[in-house]
């Protein structure tokens, strides 16, 4: 690596695994480095932000990002994706439909409503290409040198298309998308599936286990106890029986 995680403004979570808290909406972007490939997790809220993430990843690794996993179809996680035009892009099954047609109009409107410059929103939405790879169940990416990343479609919950990324190691790291939020209460918009959200978090906990590091879509890194408490809070909030 040409610079350290700290020098680049990234937080190292495990050897070869880190994340960046982006300004504006405190959205998380992740990076997983293997011997042969580099995986980014989410892409930021605009083409400019995506380009910065791509540039920082190259500074950290000396290589380009080869794979991109999108955790769900909200603007602050996907509108930077066109900056990774030469990466293999993955999303939960159905995400390609959510990012096409009327979904693009809703994505653009949501971005502007939350404060993204309309011109930046137009530029990003026009360039957005739906994921090439649809993950149904689980998909293991071999990044080389013994490094694997497991992509798991464990929604619906926060949206109908929630993808998480588990990186084996010591510790194991789980990128949760907005199924888990630390800096504020979990946001349940019109595309959320509240009745299924607690079940999704149960699956998340089974996937990661008690000793994993859980990386929320917004906020500080948390542990299994935090995820379990948030699961119980959501169940009570939405009247979901145990």
UniProtKB/TrEMBL annotation:
Please name the CDD domains in this protein's record.
Answer: metallo-hydrolase-like_MBL-fold
Q: Name the source's superkingdom.
A: Bacteria
Q: Which residues form the Metallo-beta-lactamase domain?
A: 26-218
Question: Which Pfam family, an example, fits this chain?
Answer: Lactamase_B
Q: What is this protein called?
A: Glyoxylase-like metal-dependent hydrolase (Beta-lactamase superfamily II)
What organism is recorded for this protein?
A: Streptomyces thermodiastaticus
